[in-house]
């Protein structure tokens, strides 16, 4: 081992050769343990979107548009006339979709009562409101589309008579901000589809109509108002049952070979 002599021949401190010192440094550096954080485990179940399900059994619903159209007779309380209305749609009533765009058409007719004088009648406002029927309280009654037809301010309303009905085309758009917002709140990132709505308990669409009439009899100083309401219910197809996976197995628990 090399060493140096100090003053008066006394041994001095030991000095390592340069090559040895470098080797020690390299050995120390190479032997230092590497600490790398392991990635956090992920769970496929935690990443999958939540499936919103029904919370009850859907009731049986009559399809008011089963024939492709509907004809309703409406009374007007205290007035010498009645109303009839015809409804039809561009949608398919036998495979109704809550989300597909469609038009609801109507034709509202004035029907005088025999032996009476028909007053002046005008429709000042009409509204068509589509909502969901569902066994899930978070979706039941949720309005998905609204159409309002308001007569111009310069007129009391749209004049109606035996020869001139009131006709309207109401666009129904299922993908509205209210439905999207509610679905996101309840179902998170689960895709919004008709099948998903069915699984969540949606079993029908309800379409509510409101007709505001203004009426003026002979000798009246002005108009008075009557409101008539009506509704249609159209069921949506029930969701397909979930697929079940079956596999043939032998008595000892091993899978049986496929035959063919």
Which CATH architecture of one domain is right? Sandwich
Gross morphology is elongated
CATH topology of one domain: the name is Immunoglobulin-like
How much of the sequence lies in strands comes to: 25-35%
* Subunit organisation of the chains: single chain
User: In angstroms, what separates the terminal alpha carbons?
Assistant: 84 Å
Taken in chain order, the helices and strands follow as HHEEEEEEEHHEE
Mean pLDDT: 84
| Uncertain regions spanning at least 5 consecutive residues | 3-17, 19-32, 247-251
Number of helices: 4
What's the CATH first level of one domain?
Answer: Mainly Beta
**Which structural class is indicated by helix and strand composition?**
alpha+beta
Rg over CA atoms: 39 Å
The overall strand count is 9
| Main sheet attributes: strand count, strand direction, barrel closure | 5 strands, antiparallel
Helix content: 10-25%
Describe this structure in words.
The chain is elongated, with a radius of gyration of 39 Å. It is α+β, with helices and mostly antiparallel strands and 260 residues long. The protein has a domain at 69-235: Immunoglobulin-like (Sandwich). It is built from 4 helices and 9 strands; from the N terminus they run ααβββββββααββ.
